[in-house]
Amino acid sequence: MVRKPARSGIKPDAKATSTRKPNMREAILAAAEELFSTYGFNAVSVRDIAQAAGANPGSVTYHFKTKDGLLLEIYRRHCGPMNRRRSELLAEARRVRDLQDRLEAIVRAYVLPAFTSGSDLAGGGTRFTRLRAIMSAEGNEVVRKIIAQTFDDTSHALIDAIHESLPHIPRTDLVWRGHFLLGALYYTLVTPERVSRLSRGSADGTNAGHAIEELVRATVAALQAARLDQPTPVPRKTASANPGRALT
Amino acid sequence: MVRKPARSGIKPDAKATSTRKPNMREAILAAAEELFSTYGFNAVSVRDIAQAAGANPGSVTYHFKTKDGLLLEIYRRHCGPMNRRRSELLAEARRVRDLQDRLEAIVRAYVLPAFTSGSDLAGGGTRFTRLRAIMSAEGNEVVRKIIAQTFDDTSHALIDAIHESLPHIPRTDLVWRGHFLLGALYYTLVTPERVSRLSRGSADGTNAGHAIEELVRATVAALQAARLDQPTPVPRKTASANPGRALT
DNA sequence: TGAATATTTGGACGACAGTACAAATATGGT
DNA sequence: ACCATATTTGTACTGTCGTCCAAATATTCA
Known about the structure:
disordered C terminus; mainly alpha; DNA-binding
C-alpha cells in the first residue's frame, strides 16, 4: 500500500456474541472492498487485506485463489442487486407521464443505485461505485470483461429509455451524454473534496444527497440540449489532435 | 507493468546513425509519459520505463532521483503551457458578445487545451490529460499537491468567468457543473472505447474532435439549467428513493 | 465420540520492486 | 591532447509482491 493504513477499525473482534460464525471469508471481502476502493487495486497488497481483516495471507489464497479472484467476487456481490434495482426504478420511471419528470426519474433510476446498495446500507453502494471508478482508470483486465458483460445492458436500457422520451435527439448524442453522466458520477466519488475546496466550503462534495441532486439536474438539462447549429463549424486547427490509435 | 515484458536481452544498438544527440533524458520522459498514461503510475516500473526508452534503469535515477520525481517533471512540463493557453483562450472568450456564444467559448477555453498541448502536437495534450485522469483515481500524493497548487487557479478562473455570464445561478451550482465537466472529460479519455461500443459503432470515442463538440454542447446546456424548483414547481414523488445519507 | 472435511496458520519460494553506487564511458572547453 | 565534468552502465542491496504448501487446528456429521 502506498500510504500507511493507520489501522482502520475493521477488526473482527467480539464476534462470538451474537453470531456463531466468524466467517473470515466475509471479513476478507469487506476489507478488500474498503482498501481497493480507497487506494486502488494495484496499490493494495494481499497482505494489507489480510491484516485489515485479521486474517492470514494464506487464507485469502484459500478462499479466492488469486488477487484477481478476490476482485471478481466483490464485483459479483454487487452487480446483481445494483442492476436489479436499476431495472425496477427504470420501469417505474417509464410510467411517469410528464416528460420533464420522466426524464428526471430515468436519470435517477440510473444514479441512485450507485449510491445505495441493496444489501449493504452503510454506504456500501458508494464504496463499490468508487471502486468501479478507480478500476476503470487502472484498467484491470478482469474488470473489463465484467463491465462489458454486465453493465452494458444497463447502459443500453438507460439510453433506450431516454431515447424514448427524447426521440428527436440522435441516439449517438444520448450515448455521449450518458457517458458524461457516468464520468461525472465517478469523478465525484473519486475526488469529492475537490468540490468542497473549489466552492470554498459552501458545498460538501462528500454529501451524497447533494451530489445526486446536482448531477440529476445537470444531466437532465444536458440530455435535452439540441444540436448546436454550428457557429464554429469545426474545432479550430489546434484541435487537430486526433489520436487515431487505440487508447487503453 | 502488468503483462510480462518477455525479457528480451537485446540491447539498444545502432543508435548513433542519424542523430548525434541521444538526449536520454527526453526519451525517458516520453516513455514514462506514454506508459504512465496507459497503465497507471503504480503498474509501471522504473525498469519498464528504462527499457522503453532504451536506457539503463540507473539512468532514470540519475536524471530524476526517484520515480515520483519523474512524475513530477512530467507534470511540470505540461502544466505551464496548458494553463497559459487556457488563460489566453479564456480572456478571448470573455470578450464575446452573445451570451450563448460566450458561454460556449468559455467552456471551449477550458476543454481545448486539455486535448492539444502547446509543445507536443501529436496527441501530447490528450496523453497528459489521460495521465491526470488516471492519477486522480490512483491518488498519488505528489500529484495531489500539484493539483491544488496549479489547477485550482484555472478552475476558479473558469467558474468565475461562467458566473459572470450566468450571474443568476448560484456559484455553488456552477462549481458542481464544472466538476462534472472535468469528470466527463477524464472519463472520455480513460475509456473512449466505451462510447464506440455503446453507440454500436456510430460514434468514435477516440475522436478528440467529436468528443470536444459533444462535451461542449452538453456542458453549456447543463450550465444554463435552472434549479429544479423553478421551471416545474410541482414536487414529485415518482422517484421514490430518498438519498440523504453521507458517503465515504 | 471419532473420522472426514474445512479452514487457518506460518513459513517458504522465486520474481520483481525502487534505489544506490562504483566503475566505465562520453562530452566539451582549453 | 588533456582534464574536468556529465552521463551511462552493470550490479547489488533491501524490501515486498503474489502464490504455494505442509502442518496445525477447527468444524461437521455418522
